[in-house]
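Researcher: Let's continue the batch. This sequence belongs to Sulfatase, and it's 631 residues. Same format as the previous ones, please.
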Amino acid sequence: MRTAFSPLFRRVARCAGVFPLLMLSLFLAASLLTRIVLLLIARHEIGAAGLPAVLLLGAGRDLVTGCLAVLPAVLLHLLLPRARLAFWIRLPVVLATIYLLLFNLVSEILFWREFGVRYNFIAVDYLVYTQEVIGNIRESYPVGTILAALLLATLAFAWLLRRPLLRLLRAGDSLRARLLHAAAWSLAAIAAIAAVLGAPLLDTESLSNRYHAELANNGLYSFVSAFRNNELDYKHFYVTRPSASVRADLERLRAGPATIRRIAARPERRLNVVLVSVESLSAEFLGAFGNRKGLTPNLDRLAQDGMLFTRLYATGTRTVRGLEAISLALPPTPGQSIVKRPGNEDLYTLGSVFRGKGYDVRYVYGGYGYFDNMNAFFGGNGYQVVDRLSIPDNRIPFENIWGVADEALFDQALDEIDKSFRAGKPSFTHVMTTSNHRPYTYPEGRIDIPSKTGRAGGVKYTDYAIGRFMRMASEKPWFRDTVFLIVADHCASSAGKTELPVNRYHIPMIVYAPAHVAPRRVDRLASQMDVAPTLLGLLDAGHESRFLGRDILRMTEADERAFISNYQSLGYLRHGILTVLRPKRQVQAYRIADDSSATPTAVDPELLDEAIAYYQGAAELVRNGEYRAPR
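Model: Same format as before. Here are the structure tokens for Sulfatase:
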């Protein structure tokens, strides 16, 4: 270590120990390298003006995280004696650490390319659903090649620095010195914990560009933070109002007490319903919204011949958020989706309304329904779950780790609807697709884009499967008396310069029923949680309603609003103003222009009261067990 930094390193090492300090140095170097690589990837989305703050805050986050991450090395340093044995234990530990840090670098690059953020709740889920995630990674990337390349890079790095590394690893200390080192690292860890709990120096929320805030973060820090914040108690973390006034406003906002028992003005139409929630279908993919790549010819025909909702917004960024909004008609509550929480059975759902009317109610999914807790949620709420285990192998032309090809999924759905028709019962069938998901693989020869070449192929194949499904359904005796509703679960990407980029939540919804629904465009600003009330309104279906969503077709311009969120920030879009509720009882507001730009503006007290009414009200209803299906 004959460099300009050697004297400094030696002085610090006397207080901290050579081995722990080496491990911290490796962590800090890898963290800086990761940040630089991500900066280069996001170079078109960031401004140079904020880079000093990004680097300064990033260094602080890295140091705080490193002081905690290095504690196992401190323990090893304390326990190992001054002997040759220590060298032979330290050497593989250092090599393994270098390998894991390089592996994490590659993982963060892939995660950033997919989601535009550092590790978050999605990464936490990846540890839970290892079979699907590892399978997806194997199908999407040359894993063996990457792992081998990382091993070679580790060995090359160690060989280049072999002399200083060997000298450092052979360094020994007395027991007294090691005890002093452990005490010093304990103090550093306490200081790091204090910084985590609220040092303003490490607060990235002051950065206006969300890419800057993400880049200033540390991957391990954000991963642990996401794990800790799986559930957020609204009243503890967010701005609140008295519950009585919240409830009163909530009744008014969801159209008043009349929605508690909605009496249809016309006789109810007992039509079959097929609700297709499409994986990652951003509105921007459809020709109906200006796309000229020809990815969705079938959906564009349905949009032209049916009812197209042009200003609908997803409530979140994950499939479970879409399923939550569509089935429960609730705004998102902070933390994990209700679909994945304990105690989520016997809730008031779209399925419970149809079941109360004598419908067969099914959830049809091409993957294994234990993923994302789908089986438990839908099964516990009165749906018959039809997943990969129910689909015979002889009808599957192709499958990947996420499930069967969408065409096989739709074939199974046709069979399920046929069963109800033969039994003389109407049916409500909620179908969840999977093919428009990395690795974007599907049967060859279906479309003009080869399998596994990217998102465009996934979109076009799913469109092909929907078109095929509609052609086959049109030959069924139940087709004329069926309403088809097609809506996305969320957009393909939610990353943007702002925390909640409105344009990254814009999704399509199409209602198609030639004998019952006239073609038209519906331009009301609305939310994914309005799907259920709108569908029931189309059927003139009288029902006792606990839904917080509204019937879009009965909305006036004054009723328009939308809800968008990530795991912690809750957005309320109304009158061109996005009001954002954040943890630590923070509130921010932005003026939205063309859904693509957001300018900070003053918080409107009336809009803030409405946002709190919806979000606090929904959280209280769920927590207090008041969102249960009637018995």
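Researcher: Any comment?
Model: The CA atoms of residues 258 and 545 lie 9 Å apart.
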